[in-house]
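Annex B, item 7. Sequence and structure tokens for protein A, then protein B.
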Amino acid sequence: MADSSSRMRLDQPRDRRRSLRPRRSGDSDRFGRFAESFARFMGTAQFLLWMTLFIAVWIVWNVPYGPDRPRWDEYPFIFLTLILSLQASYAAPLILLAQNRQEARDRVQQEQDRDATAQSHADMEFLAREVASLRLGIGEVATRDFIRGELRGLVEQLQEEPEPDEDDPHGA
């Protein structure tokens, strides 16, 4: 009789199959950030200084002249050439990945800027229409200076008219 644990049961989930693909952790963007930080570091003077120092020490150590010591890469420095080629073969795709990520960020920023510009343009058009309507409306509103002028004119008219007699109730 077969062991019950070795039989496949339909009411139980199957075990996960093993995969050669790397598992994605919760942070799927980690490699992209690493590529950007590596590309930034490679573009610094500090990296160039350390790389120059490393190559100079390598060459001085492996030159056949000087004190007798173990050398692992005699002239023409084939191993050093291999290391530098390997570094370049990894650096180029990482730099391209960093550039692609920066391009995507720039594209998003450009779209946001375009939307903000369009909104600002629409707001300015609305405000221009509002100011124009206010100007038209103010043309129909009596201003303080206009009212003062009218009142002065009425006061002057009243001062020019003769005052009615007190005895004559009708002013005649």
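Protein B:
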Amino acid sequence: MNQGIANVRIVLCRTSHPGNIGAAARAMKTMGLSGLHLVSPKWFPHIDATARASGAEDLLEQCKVSDTLDEALSGVRLAVAVTARSRDLSHEVYDAREAARIVLEEAARGDVALVFGTEMSGLTNEEVGKCQIISTISANPEYSSLNLAAAVQVMAYELRMAAEQGAAPREKPLDLATFEEIEHFYQHLEETLVKIGFLDPNEPKRLMQRLRRLFARSRLEKIEVNILRGILRDLTEYPKELR
């Protein structure tokens, strides 16, 4: 089996029902996943989480709880937003099976994350913006709302199947930038655009969201981030009349 599956994190954002945390842990363990991360859960630890884990209590004991999604994604080379809700400014979208293949391909070289939103409304646009691609689970269009733990189970199953079949590696692995490196680039980009007058911070509209989508499609490598940040540094040093 593909050993990269051990590098896959399941990140649950702002869960409101502790039972879903336990059920998600059980779903993960049945498929060989163990990296559970929680972002600002409403209740945890909780007796309902333990009861629903049903033999996967060790995942609850070892899980990492963070205040922000940034913390939960620290060090990952790929973050996948699992969402059913359509977005008008969307990243590349893959079905669960294809997303699982991509995840395992990257997990062979470092940490990756599948990010799930809160039970009531799913992921926010800002949370999706922290990810590089989107995964959807095919379902009845007239009733496509999956329980959180059920969604985790489906994605965990697809990862298991992809691992057993063996994900075909790229001929030349990409040295992708980490989550922190990409976020620092976005911060540098926004600060530069404000400084040169291209972005009005009082009326930002959706410029940065569009730029995040653009660069997410590119799957930036470390060297590319360094090049872009070098351009940004030089740009701010030029006299205004030469820009």
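Comment on protein B: The chain has a mean pLDDT of 91.
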